[in-house]
Specification:
Radius of gyration: 11 Å
InterPro entries: Homeodomain-like_sf (IPR009057), Myb_dom (IPR017930), SANT/Myb (IPR001005), SANT_dom (IPR017884)
Order of helices and strands: HHHH
Pfam families: Myb_DNA-binding
Number of strands: 0
Largest sheet: none
CATH topology: Arc Repressor Mutant, subunit A
């Protein structure tokens, strides 16, 4: 089904922490599978809501 605002919020948080590790994204969201997370990320990327190149370097901002 459609993603809830809370799920989308969790996805965005997880992307900042884990980048494109879809298993970790799904784990963080808790209600979605890795393949659903992957589809959502590619959808967001198409809509230009996220820039995955920016995210890939975010792991070192601790």
């Amino acid at each position: 089904g459609p993603w809830s605002p809370k799920e989308r919020e969790l996805l965005m948080e997880a992307l900042k922490v884990y980048g494109k590790d879809y298993w970790k994204l799904a784990e963080h969201i808790g209600t979605r599978s890795p393949s659903q997370a992957m589809k959502a990320v590619s959808h967001l990327k198409k809509k230009k809501k996220i820039d995955l190149d920016d995210l890939s370097n975010s792991g070192d901002k601790k």
